[in-house]
Amino acid sequence: MLEEESCNCRGGDDPICNIDLLRVFLYDPDPTALGSSPHTDWGTLTVVWQDEVGGLETFCPVHQIYAEVSPQKRDEKFYHFVVHVGDVTSLTMGHASGGKGSQVRFPSPLHRVQCPRINDPRISLVYFCYPPPPLSLATLEQRIKDYSPPINSMTIPYQSYYLLRNQTSGEKITRDPEAFYQKIREKPLGDVFRDKWEQVQRE
Question: What's the whole-number average pLDDT of the chain?
Answer without folding.
Answer: 82
